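Our consortium's second objective concerns turning raw sequence data into structural hypotheses that experimental partners can test. To show how far this objective has progressed, the report includes one record in full. It was chosen at random from the queue rather than selected for favorable results. The single chain below, 179 residues long, was entered without modification.
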Amino acid sequence: MSTERYLVLSALGPDRPGLVAEVTDYLTLRGVNIEDSRMAILGAEFGVLLLMSGSESSLAQVEADRRSLEQKTGLAVVMRPTSSPEEHRRAAVIPGLVTAEALDHEGIVRAVAVAIARMGINIVSLETAAYNAPVTGSPLFRLEVHVDLPRGIWLAQLRVQMAEVARAENLDIDVRSLV
């Protein structure tokens, strides 16, 4: 039996240079490994979401010293123990990718997420970006959703559902397998 344990850290605070270096230094000095992470500037805030692994004692040290990380970085930090990624995702049969592009308008993320949830499909990650078209400057929107299709749900079924969302929301949607 493995002694490796897992902990999720989420943090949010004012953006400034050096935050990634400070957070990763804090974790490395306590003997943990970063397994997976997402970090981004949203407005003037910097957000961190990461999965770390380590021994029970090293993760306990990370949690015990959380206030020092908050004081040094100015980030509000939340930590939670979790299971290994393999344990959580082992029921997945087909990893898939849904991308959507359109003129930006309210409700795109909701429409896609609701349709996926109604099918009983898990969203593994979701990223969006609003940007201006190169020539016209029109506001455009792009969404990328990684999903795990469980047993009994086929990619073709997801394509049919996403085609309905595309018609209703005036989106260009692509659905493909990642295997």
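The partners drew two points from this record. The domain at 5-87 is CATH 3.30.70.260 (Alpha-Beta Plaits). Helices lie at 19-29, 56-64, 66-73, 85-89, 108-118, 155-169. Both points have been shared with the crystallography group to help prioritize constructs.
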